[in-house]
Design a protein that fits this description.
The chain is an alpha/beta fold and about 400 residues long. The protein contains 16 helices and 11 strands. It has a domain of about 250 residues: Rossmann fold, CATH 3.40.50.1820. The strands form 3 sheets. Strands 1-3-2-6-7-10-11 form a 7-stranded mixed sheet, with helices on both faces. Strands 4-5 form a two-stranded antiparallel sheet. A two-stranded antiparallel sheet has the order 8-9. The longest helix is centred in the N-terminal third of the chain and has 19 residues. This is Serine aminopeptidase S33 domain-containing protein.
């Protein structure tokens, strides 16, 4: 199956596309909260040259578009046009006002914050955490303790959080305001910038960007020809971690992500979780994606995205019988959640198999197939374009 039939863009088509993207980048550059190094970028071949299609690549939560520049360059060098946008608000600083979030409405948040401020135990912890510049996030036992303490001072929180965690709970809008749909609407706006570009479009993403790639494809099945999602965050890994994120969001606790200089409110993670679990996992999205070749790549060394949720999602869209592909790096391969760039280290791990991952991404985008054996090899397949070393 050839899912990347070649097409030849004209000068006018390329110029129209560049103009649309450049206008978006210019608006971001003029924004007072502009985030250094987080601007979208594109790699387009010259007019008159055949291309295999255009790949939209979506970075992970709190990262920047250049997070996957090696993959972008490899695909570009082998016949694809590439566009790397920023996911919802990530081109801007100050996540508390610019990134997608889920927040308790003031009539519920203010009484809770008042109780927290009057609780000496919580105040001591929050002050200690806030003044520790190396603390990325509370540890597992700390999160467990915070959950217990919050429920002790405000038992109603349990009902409030249930409305957040349950599918289509009518009480969600009663308790919360949410901008989680920005992950989709902003991706759709970037997608529209490619209207003048002929040929197939493919979506690729890592973590939350993987969820964006899936959600965007589901919303535009008439144009997207394939999806590759690396460790897509469809649901936060671990029930206790997820419960902590949902409970702690209203307290303005901040954490560090892939950008060591940028703290974000926990409510931003709540929005990412809700986008994956409520939008991408919706019956409508599943039906749409069942007809779009989809390749999911996961790792057993996961610390962000729930593995079982992705496995269930793969079966819901039809699995291999419907032309989809799935690969899970075993724990002994020591592949971390951010698996795409070989220089990115997480949990003291980095992906030694990254070149084979790039090759199989290329194979899938061009044929709809993937060689699972090759994914577990450090040596590259000589029958595919070779990936340059670091």
């Amino acid at each position: 199956m050839n899912i990347a039939a070649e097409t030849i863009p004209t000068l006018e088509q390329i110029n129209q596309t560049k103009s649309a993207i450049d206008a978006h980048i210019a608006s971001l550059n003029q924004h007072p909260d502009r985030r250094e190094g987080a601007m979208p970028y594109y790699l387009f071949h010259e007019p008159g040259r055949p291309i295999r299609g255009t790949v939209m690549i979506f970075h992970g939560f709190s990262a920047r578009p250049h997070q996957m520049w090696r993959l972008a360059d490899y695909l570009f060098q082998n016949g694809f046009n590439v566009y790397q946008p920023s996911i919802a608000g990530h081109a801007l600083m100050y996540p508390d006002r610019n990134w997608a979030q889920v927040d308790l409405k003031p009539e519920y948040a203010e009484p809770l914050k008042d109780k927290v401020q009057k609780d000496p135990v919580l105040q001591t912890f929050l002050q200690n955490f806030a003044h520790n510049p190396t603390a990325t996030r509370p540890g597992f036992m700390q999160q467990m303790g915070l959950i217990a303490r919050l429920l002790l001072i405000e038992p109603q929180l349990l009902d409030i959080v249930k409305s957040l965690e349950s599918n289509n709970d009518p009480d969600f809008d009663r308790y919360f305001t949410s901008s989680h749909l920005r992950y989709l609407t902003e991706a759709q706006a970037r997608f529209a910038e490619l209207d003048a570009m002929p040929g197939a479009i493919f979506t690729v993403g890592l973590s939350v960007g993987g969820a964006v790639a899936l959600g965007l494809a589901a919303s535009r099945p008439e144009r997207v020809r394939g999806v590759v999602a690396y460790a897509p965050l469809l649901k936060i890994y671990g029930e206790q971690r997820r419960r902590y994120v949902n409970l702690a969001g209203p307290l303005d606790i901040s954490e560090l992500g892939w950008d060591e200089k940028l703290r974000f409110p926990v409510g931003c993670l709540t929005a990412a979780d809700r986008f994956g679990s409520q939008v991408v996992m919706s019956d409508e999205s599943v039906r749409s994606l069942s007809n779009i070749p989809t390749f999911l790549v996961l790792t057993e060394n996961e610390d962000a995205a729930d593995i079982e949720t992705s496995q269930d999602f793969y079966q819901r869209i039809g699995g291999e019988g419907e032309g989809h592909r799935f690969f899970l790096y075993p724990s002994e391969d020591l592949v971390p959640h951010p698996m795409v760039d070989p220089t990115e280290v997480s949990q003291n791990m980095s992906n030694r198999f990254w070149q084979s991952l790039y090759q199989e991404t290329f194979r899938f985008l061009t044929t709809g197939r993937a060689n699972m054996t090759n994914l577990g090899r450090i040596e590259q397949d000589p029958g595919l374009p070779i990936v340059p070393g670091v």
